[in-house]
Specification:
alpha/beta, 5 strands, about 210 residues, Rossmann fold, 5-stranded parallel sheet, about 45% helix
């Protein structure tokens, strides 16, 4: 990347071109993956970046693929979890990864320095399912929350001009936030979170970090 986010002592990203701090998150949206999705969002915010997702907006006048392409075009970072290869397998994640790789290859100078993270839970499985990305080995998080926080932290922290923050510290902070979330929702008069709302959760993380740092 040609521009890295710098954070103040409070840990906030300075005002800059948001392309250079936007992180597109391409992952499963089902209940079984939710704890990992939340951990990703938290880690992205913790390091001073902005998480982006297809769940951030609903507009019947915009097709899903048009929205995905638009968000990808606005993000200097792309996170892609290709682990969902069960029965039935989910092909949306590899497809969106392909769109992002295409942006890097054919999107012009602005996109040539995009940074991508590919995630999986099992080593070398991608050789059987999406062998075209050989040479771009995924980070393996072994289906653990700490594992996925570590993978995201190790990827993004190389673009942050601050002293290193360990994955264990981010994991502890995420656990503290999880315990505080119900009370914070009540304070802000939000629903109980039974139905996940990306924008609400992202705002909660941001507010909690601002209040606790």
């Amino acid at each position: 990347m040609t521009r890295v986010p710098r954070r103040t002592a409070a840990g906030k990203a300075e005002a800059t071109d948001q392309f250079n701090i936007n992180v597109f998150i391409n992952c499963p949206f089902d209940a079984g993956y939710l704890r990992f999705f939340k951990a990703i969002i938290f880690t992205v915010h913790y390091l001073g970046f902005i998480p982006r997702s297809a769940l951030e907006s609903a507009n019947a006048n915009e097709t899903r693929i048009a929205k995905i392409k638009r968000i990808i075009s606005e993000c200097g970072f792309g996170l892609h979890d290709i682990s969902r290869v069960g029965t039935p397998p989910r092909f949306n994640m590899p497809f969106e990864l392909g769109v992002d790789i295409g942006a890097c290859e054919f999107g012009g100078e602005r996109f040539q320095h995009k940074s991508l993270l590919i995630l999986d839970t099992v080593p070398y499985r991608f050789h059987r399912t999406i062998s075209d990305i050989s040479g771009q080995d995924p980070s393996i998080y072994q289906a653990s929350t700490q594992g996925i926080i570590t993978a995201v932290r190790n990827w993004l922290h190389q673009y942050v001009n601050t002293l290193p923050v360990g994955a264990s510290d981010i994991t502890k902070a995420f656990r503290s936030f999880t315990l505080a979330e119900p009370k914070l929702r009540k304070k802000l008069r939000l629903d109980d979170g039974t139905d996940f709302n990306f924008r609400d959760f992202s705002a909660l993380v941001r507010i909690w970090l601002e209040e606790t740092r």
